[in-house]
Specification:
It comes from Pseudomonas fluorescens. The chain is α+β, with helices and mostly antiparallel strands. It has 16 helices and 16 strands. The chain folds into two domains: about 150 residues, Rossmann fold; about 260 residues, no CATH class. A six-stranded mixed sheet has the order 1-2-4-3-5-6, with helices on one face. Strands 7-14-11-12 form a four-stranded antiparallel sheet. The protein is globular, with a radius of gyration of 27 Å. It starts with a helix and ends in a 5-residue tail after the last helix.
Length: about 475
C-alpha cells in the first residue's frame, strides 16, 4: 500500500515515529457545521473522504432520525432516506461553489430504487456532479458473522466539463457524465414513478388484498373440511397465491364471491358465518377506510382480480438469483397483494421479463430490502425500455418460454425456490434461460453484451432515446 501511495503521490512519509498532525474535532458530524470545523477559503482546496455508517430507515435510532431531519430540513421524503445519504448531501453543500471535492465508500443502495430520487436531485441542485465512481464490489469483513454487502465509491465535485472516471475491477474508463445509477449517460437520468409502461407492454397491477382478519382465506385442510361439510360452496373457492405460495409450492384457498352471487352464497351457513366475521373485523378497525367496506364483507378489501390468464410477479426476490421466477396463472387463481400481476396470456411478455437483461434493470431501478431486490412496477417495469418487436421476435421469444415452462414441469418435486437457486438450478432449465437471453438481447442489438454493466449502460441509453428527457 505504501509503494502504491508513493507511485501515485510521489512520496510516502514514514509511519513511525508518530508525529503531531491534523486537528481532531470530537462531535456529531451530522449536527456540526463543517465550515466552522474546517473553514473554506479561496486559496484552499479541501478533500473529504470517509466510510460513513449505513442504515436503512427502518433500522435507524431516534438520534439518527433526528440527525437526518437536521441535515434534510425542509426537504420532502427525508424520513425514507438511508443514513449514509446525509453525508453525501452535507458534503455537497460544503464543497458547493469551491474547488474542493468529496468521496465516500457507501453501500450501493444510494444508487438504486427510490433512494436515487430522494437524494440525488438535492445534490444536483447545488451544482454538484459525480466526479468518479467505483462500480459495485462485494465487501466482506473477518468477523465471525461475516458481513457481505455490495459497496460503491462515489466522488463529488462542482460541475465542470472535465472528464469523469468509471472504475471496475482494476480498470478505468473516461466518460462524459455519470448518472446516479452509476452509468455513463449524457444527462443525469432519474427514473420517475411512472404510472403506465413506457414501452408497448401490458400494464401491471397489485394483487388483491383481503383485509378480512383471515376469514376469507383457507388452508388446504380447512378447505377440504369446508367442502366436505358444504359441498355447494365449492364453486365459490379459488386458489389464493402469494409470493411464498408461488415459490415454495404452498397451497391456500379463498372465498371469491361476485356481487350477483351473494344472495345464493349467503344461504350456505359456512359462508355466511365467515362473511359475518369479516364484517365484524372491519367494523372494529381503527382505520376509517376499512370500516367503510364492512358493508361489502363478501368482497376482498382491495379486489383487483380479473377472470383471465395472468403473469404472477413476486414483489420480494433474492439477490442470489440470476432470474426472477415469474409464474403463469389461469383464471382459477387469485393473486395476493404480496405479488403484482400482468393480466395477459402473451408468452412473449413472460419471456421479456424472465430475461437476464430485465433482471439487471430491476436490480438497478427498484432498490432492495437488505440485499434482496424489491420489484416495483412504477420504478422498474413501467420504465423498462423495450425495443420495437416484430411478430417474428415475439414468436421466437414465446417458443423459448414454452421450453422454460416445460423444463420446470420435469421437476415436480422441486419448488421454484429450489429450481432458481443458482446452486441447484437444473442444467436444462439454465440452458433454456440462456437461449431466451440470447434471443431477447438480439432484439436490442446484434452485438453481444460483455457483462451486466454493459447491459445497463445500453438500457439507459435506450431509455434516454425513448423519453427524450432525463426525468421524463
Amino acid at each position: 500500500m505504501n509503494l502504491k501511495f508513493k507511485e501515485v503521490f510521489g512520496r510516502c512519509n514514514p509511519a513511525l515515529p508518530l508525529n503531531n498532525s491534523g486537528n481532531v474535532v470530537r462531535g456529531n458530524a451530522l449536527q456540526k457545521d463543517w465550515k466552522n470545523v474546517c473553514p473554506l477559503s479561496d486559496n484552499t482546496q479541501v478533500f473529504i473522504l470517509g466510510n460513513p455508517p449505513y442504515l436503512g430507515s427502518s433500522l435507524q435510532s431516534d438520534q439518527q432520525k433526528e440527525d437526518i431531519a437536521h441535515v434534510f430540513f425542509g426537504i420532502e421524503g427525508y424520513k425514507s432516506i438511508d443514513l449514509i445519504a446525509s453525508w453525501f448531501y452535507k458534503a455537497a453543500r460544503y464543497i458547493a461553489g469551491t474547488g474542493s471535492r468529496a468521496a465516500f465508500v457507501s453501500t450501493n443502495s444510494i444508487c438504486q430504487g427510490e433512494q436515487v430520487g430522494l437524494l440525488w436531485p438535492n445534490i444536483f441542485e447545488n451544482n454538484i456532479e459525480i466526479d468518479f465512481v467505483h462500480q459495485p464490489f462485494k465487501w466482506e469483513n473477518n468477523a465471525k458473522k461475516n458481513a457481505a454487502v455490495y459497496c460503491v465509491i462515489v466522488g463529488l465535485r462542482n460541475s465542470s466539463n472535465s472528464e469523469k472516471y468509471l472504475f471496475k475491477e482494476g480498470l478505468s474508463q473516461t466518460v462524459e457524465n455519470i448518472n446516479p445509477y452509476l452509468v455513463a449517460t449524457k444527462r443525469n437520468i432519474i427514473l420517475p414513478k411512472r404510472q403506465k409502461p413506457l414501452s408497448r407492454i401490458p400494464s401491471m397491477t397489485y394483487g388483491s388484498k383481503p383485509t378480512d382478519g383471515g376469514n376469507l382465506l383457507l388452508e388446504p385442510n380447512e378447505k377440504d373440511e369446508f367442502v366436505k361439510k358444504y359441498p355447494e360452496a365449492k364453486k365459490y373457492l379459488k386458489r389464493f397465491i402469494g409470493a411464498s405460495e408461488h415459490t415454495n409450492n404452498k397451497e391456500r384457498w379463498c372465498l371469491w364471491i361476485n356481487d350477483q352471487e351473494l344472495n345464493e352464497a349467503l344461504t350456505i351457513r359456512g359462508i355466511s358465518e365467515r362473511i359475518n366475521k369479516v364484517e365484524e373485523f372491519r367494523l372494529n378497525s381503527t382505520k376509517a377506510a376499512t370500516r367503510a367496506i364492512a358493508g361489502v364483507a363478501h368482497r376482498f378489501g382491495e379486489p383487483r382480480y380479473i377472470a383471465s390468464n395472468s403473469i404472477l410477479v413476486p414483489i420480494h426476490g433474492s439477490d442470489r438469483r440470476q432470474y426472477i421466477p415469474f409464474g403463469f396463472l389461469d383464471k382459477s387463481f387469485v393473486a395476493s397483494n404480496a405479488t403484482q400481476v400482468i393480466y395477459t396470456g402473451e408468452l412473449y411478455v413472460f419471456g421479456l421479463i424472465s430475461s437476464l437483461i430485465h433482471n439487471v434493470w430491476i436490480k438497478a431501478s427498484c432498490g432492495k430490502i437488505k440485499e434482496d431486490p424489491r420489484y416495483s412496477s412504477t420504478l422498474g417495469y413501467n420504465n423498462f425500455p423495450v425495443p420495437s418487436l416484430t411478430d417474428q421476435n415475439k414468436l421466437d421469444i414465446s417458443a423459448l418460454v414454452l421450453e422454460i415452462l416445460s423444463s420446470r414441469e420435469q421437476y415436480p418435486e422441486l419448488s421454484l425456490s429450489d429450481l432458481y437457486d443458482p446452486d441447484l438450478m437444473p442444467p436444462d432449465l439454465m440452458e433454456a434461460h440462456s437461449r431466451l437471453d440470447a434471443v431477447v438481447e438480439r432484439c436490442y442489438r446484434a452485438k453481444d453484451f460483455v457483462n451486466d454493466e454493459d447491459r445497463l449502460d445500453y438500457l439507459f441509453k435506450l431509455y434516454e432515446k425513448m423519453t427524450g428527457a432525463p426525468n421524463a
